[in-house]
């Protein structure tokens, strides 16, 4: 009920009154209050807006720590993110990447991609992040040839939940995983990804770990699922 109120009713009313999208309001708040070139400041400012003013579907500060820890443990060279939204997690990941590492982030919505581009540039991490605009099932098969990806060290799934399973299967079929590649999926409880959990946990090629947490900016139970590819 809280999600419906925040995502549908309240947001539509505010959009109508202010004649702009919530995502644009988040960007404006960052441009006015965060420090240019400081990705930590950008992340903290988005968290402040979304916890105090309007809820948004970023990974958020609590699950963000799980994301941070995973990135730090892997120390990846090539990262794929599915679901850019406003660029929050792209900035969060990019600030931890070593020199020469790169993040390819896929966004289907052109408006979100445009917002994320400005957010990423303001944070000063545009040299590490490339936004790939379009549907994930069209972009994944292009990664090897068009974007010169050999294998992916880390995949962060945070887009449409019904795409988690088919996209994970497609990533494997395109030979984009190596032994030790890590997948991390957000929102596996709310809104939930039961098909993905069933698929990944029953697949002998993956070793899974569940991280209980809470839905971004709320006291609602959620979790992230980590899956290590065993080859």
Number of structural units classed as domains: 1
CATH superfamily: Vaccinia Virus protein VP39
Supply the CATH architecture: 3-Layer(aba) Sandwich
| Helix-strand string | HHHHEHEHEHHEHEHHEE
Radius of gyration: 17 Å
Strand content: 15-25%
Low-confidence stretches: none
**Outline, from the CA principal axes?**
globular
Number of strands: 7
Kindly report the average pLDDT value.
Answer: 94
CATH class: Alpha Beta
Distance between the termini: 42 Å
Structure description:
The protein is α/β, with parallel strands linked by helices and 231 residues long. The chain has one domain: Vaccinia Virus protein VP39 (Rossmann fold), CATH 3.40.50. It is built from eleven helices and seven strands. The chain has a seven-stranded mixed sheet, with helices on both faces. Strand 6 (206-214) and strand 7 form a beta hairpin. The longest helix is centred in the first third of the chain and has 17 residues, at 2-18. The chain starts with a helix and ends with a strand. The model has no long low-confidence stretch (mean pLDDT 94).
């Amino acid at each position: 009920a809280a999600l419906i109120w925040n995502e549908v009713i309240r947001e539509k009313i505010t959009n109508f009154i202010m004649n702009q999208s919530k995502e644009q309001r988040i960007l404006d708040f960052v441009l006015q209050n965060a420090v240019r070139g400081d990705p930590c400041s950008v992340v903290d400012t988005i968290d402040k807006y979304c916890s105090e003013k309007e809820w948004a579907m970023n990974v958020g500060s609590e699950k963000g720590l799980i994301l941070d820890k995973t990135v730090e443990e892997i120390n990846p060279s090539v990262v794929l993110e599915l679901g850019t939204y406003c660029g929050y997690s792209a900035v969060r990941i990019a600030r931890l990447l070593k020199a020469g590492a790169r993040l390819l982030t896929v966004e289907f919505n052109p408006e979100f991609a445009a917002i994320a581009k400005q957010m990423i540039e303001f944070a000063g991490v545009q040299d590490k992040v490339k936004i790939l605009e379009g549907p994930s099932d069209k972009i994944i098969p292009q990664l090897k040839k068009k974007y010169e990806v050999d294998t992916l060290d880390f995949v962060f799934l945070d887009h449409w939940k019904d795409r988690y399973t088919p996209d994970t299967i497609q990533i494997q079929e395109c030979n984009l995983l190596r032994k030790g590649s890590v997948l991390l999926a957000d929102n596996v409880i709310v809104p939930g990804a039961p098909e993905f959990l069933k698929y990944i946990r029953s697949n002998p090629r993956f070793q899974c770990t569940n991280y209980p947490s809470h839905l971004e900016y709320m006291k609602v139970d959620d979790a992230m699922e980590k899956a290590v590819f065993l080859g």
